[in-house]
Amino acid sequence: MSQAHPAYDALTERHGRLHRLAHLQSLAHWDQAAFMPPGGNDARTAALTELAGLLHRQRTDEAIGPLLAQAAQEPLDDWARANLREMQRDWQLATALPAALVERRSLAVSRCGQAWRQQRPANDWAGFLENFRPVLAVAREEARLLAERSGLSPYDALLDQYEPGMTRAGVKKVFDEVRQWLPGLIQAAVARQAAQPPLIEARGPFPVEAQRRLSEQVMHLLGFDFNAGRLDVSAHPFTGGVPEDVRMTTRFNEADFLSALMGTVHETGHGRYEQNLPREWLGQPVALARSMALHESQSLFFEMQLGSHPGFAALLAPMLAQAFGAQPAFEPANLQRLMTRVQPGRIRVEADEVTYPAHILLRFDIEQALIDGTAQAEDIPALWDAGMRELLGIDTRGNYQDGPMQDVHWPEGLFGYFPCYSLGAMYAAQWFAALRRAMPDVDERIARGELAPVFDWLKQSIWQQGSRWTTRELTERISGEPLNPAHFKAHLEARYLG
Amino acid sequence: MSQAHPAYDALTERHGRLHRLAHLQSLAHWDQAAFMPPGGNDARTAALTELAGLLHRQRTDEAIGPLLAQAAQEPLDDWARANLREMQRDWQLATALPAALVERRSLAVSRCGQAWRQQRPANDWAGFLENFRPVLAVAREEARLLAERSGLSPYDALLDQYEPGMTRAGVKKVFDEVRQWLPGLIQAAVARQAAQPPLIEARGPFPVEAQRRLSEQVMHLLGFDFNAGRLDVSAHPFTGGVPEDVRMTTRFNEADFLSALMGTVHETGHGRYEQNLPREWLGQPVALARSMALHESQSLFFEMQLGSHPGFAALLAPMLAQAFGAQPAFEPANLQRLMTRVQPGRIRVEADEVTYPAHILLRFDIEQALIDGTAQAEDIPALWDAGMRELLGIDTRGNYQDGPMQDVHWPEGLFGYFPCYSLGAMYAAQWFAALRRAMPDVDERIARGELAPVFDWLKQSIWQQGSRWTTRELTERISGEPLNPAHFKAHLEARYLG
Question: Name one Pfam family in it (chains A, B) (predicted).
Fold first, then answer.
């Protein structure tokens, strides 16, 4: 870019500043979930609220509108043009919300999210409801204001924050299809697994320290850069921090090594995406991950496509024997069966990939009703129990901690996020199908432990693209077609019925 | 305060905002020392530099000068008047330095401080010097600008930041006295200890996990509130965080349990001071700890007056037996002798209280010369070696990591801080003498494990006072006289020669 573009340059400088301040925000959120003692919460909430307000004022500065208009007339190369598109999007989202609402939102979700950390283990739905009502109220107001600005419906406006270009109708079309075949597929997979020779269960306990070392070993195998990130523990596993310093968390259950192991593989997918975003654009919106579904497509590619692959189980087997002592359960074929056991259960993050979409369908139904106002916060348990009975045939009555209180999303005000998980699973299957076309021996390579070509393909195709393309453009560039859930169905059928 | 004071109110609002943003700064510094992977340093440095600049702009906003002048005319109660005095001090310090210098300083010390974490273990003085020269240059410039504003000399201006009201001449007067009697006292104490029956050494190794549990147990005994703080590990132990969430660090040496134990006792003194600052004023300058020497007076009260007290050794003994298994070395009288062994050595933070002042005299001499410009960065090793030979009779040549590279202060640009440690030791002795007058059976109480009255006295006398009084006023209120090093000498003579 040899030509002059002063307005665009002024905007990049502003976004660099925002990025540096957001670093501190991200760190404080990570610490709040992973390390902060409960007594520190009020001060942390106040600090984060202050920073949220400050960032919001900077993102909505009145100079930005004219700069955006002027930059649109300047000579820009393709990356810069994409960066400007993302800047416009940021401006649109930020200016839709008044500062007072942003601060109120930050306060409400910080309070609710933190109290949830104690209330969930206590199964305290009534206590949770007290803090959750204001979160829902502010989310509805946010949805209404975002909708006014964008012309979308309120739920679509929330969804669009996480998944630009996706709508409720688009999700519904795909999910309605899944609703058709999912119950049958679950039944068939369960029946098929029941007919196989008995599984050999792993015998615990699995000491936390051994699990932690194993997690780090697996992260190494998956290419996580420990010079630019770390693994810690939190109630709800997540990946936070910044691309230069990715903070992953997991949680350890001494009775079940698979929970932390698969969780770690999942979060490592997020972590590697962040660590490999385009460095030369870091700090600019175009260097951000494309969308939440794309992010989940990476974690689910790692967890489901790669991590639950028979070839990968063979790589894990000796590590498990080293960590916990050899036992028959760790024989590769048995291990892969353990990792792909289909079993309707209460917990989303521990669900197998076949029953997983049911958890998302349920949440998608409930959160639409919450935002539309056709359901209230106190209606959630009844909706939850009915949905779980219908979708997975299980009884969840009275168990809030493993029911509507299990996830951090709603307590933290994230409505419209859940669909991204299943969209992500679909994208992941679509990527693996594209990878197999580009690299026909990929399955043998994985079995031989040659993972580098897989990561290189992801890096070139997705990670290094940042937000250079829209999700649809990117999907078509990688796979030659837009999102197509048939790949997901084919993947499940091949693995569970084939 | 029923009368109106709009200017004062506007100032308190601004300081509340600064406090909330400084929370994030403090957290990011703690994480940088305790958890951050090396690859995250550039981004962290950039983020902290951005925030330092932002805070500086807020602290020097042109509206503040007129508000301070107007508030001085408003009806204020005593605490508010003291708060205004501290606001004026903050304004004076902040406006003395241009924003560009503050950002340059933040950048230089962040780089140097982080590189030091690798360079120190590698004994890489040449590498360190590269980063340290810009730190020294910026410190000299800072000193010159602060001096211009305050009318103090450059070194006094630096010292005044940490120890308001104290001057080089004031320190020199006290330290010159110490220089007279210290060598003789060290010799006499060493000779007396050599003449005693042989010490029973503790037999290690002392596993890190057992040390960590012991540290937390001792913090409990010392009243640390784990609901509002935590203990982690860093290369150089420190106490950071915020009063509502105090982040203490220590480091564990498996060959020597006393190092982490005494370090933890020391930092807990800092931690309790922070945790007990006046809550109703939190966020305002008057709620800050009075000064660095006062802060050190609390850590050294904990470590030396209380922690090395024969009665306290009797409380520790069963905890040690539980942590590491019973052994003859943990017998209370022997344990107290281990804790009070006088032994000239290279490391300041591991020095006994008798040789400790020698470490400070050395640093005080060198840093004055560095700031005056009569010595350069590359002269430090020679000055160091000569001083250590003269003051403690030890040979430090070629060992930079346990020599001038051992402390984080200079790499982080803190010149004028070191004297506060020995001033703190003197205040601590003066406080204990005052406590003994107020509570003649304090020694028996400590031996019985009745520590609450000691903490209550500290809380009322010092912690809850925040910056309500000047250091001199506070000293006189507590002890009936200004700083008097005779108490420190008397304490050492009683314990080591008595």
Answer: Peptidase_M32
Three-state DSSP at B241 gives strand
User: How far does the CA of residue A250 sit from the closest CA of chain B (Å)?
Assistant: 16
Most B-contacting residue of A13, A14, A24, A55 (CB-CB within 10 A), to test interface: A24
Distance from CA of A125 to the nearest CA of B (A): 24
A267 is a catalytic site residue: yes
Over residues A258-274, the mean pLDDT reads: 96
Closest partner residue to B24 (CB to CB) among A47, A226, A241 is A47
Q: How confident is the model at residue A99 (pLDDT cuts 50, 70, 90)?
A: confident
User: Are B227 and A37 a contacting pair at CB < 8 A?
Assistant: yes
Q: Which of A267, A296, A367, A412 is catalytic?
A: A267
Q: Where are the domains of chain B?
A: 6-162
User: What pLDDT, on the 0 to 100 scale, is given for residue A323?
Assistant: 97
- What distance in Å separates residue B28's CA from the closest CA in chain A? 7
pTM above 0.80, yes or no: yes
State whether residue A25 sits within 8 Å of chain B by CB: yes
pLDDT of residue B361: 97
Cα–Cα dist A485/A419, whole Å: 13
Q: What is the pLDDT of residues B80-116, one digit of tens each?
A: 999 999 999 999 999 999 988 988 998 899 889 889 9
Q: Which of A24, A225, A242 sits opposite B51 (nearest CB)?
A: A24
Q: What is the mean pLDDT of chain A?
A: 96
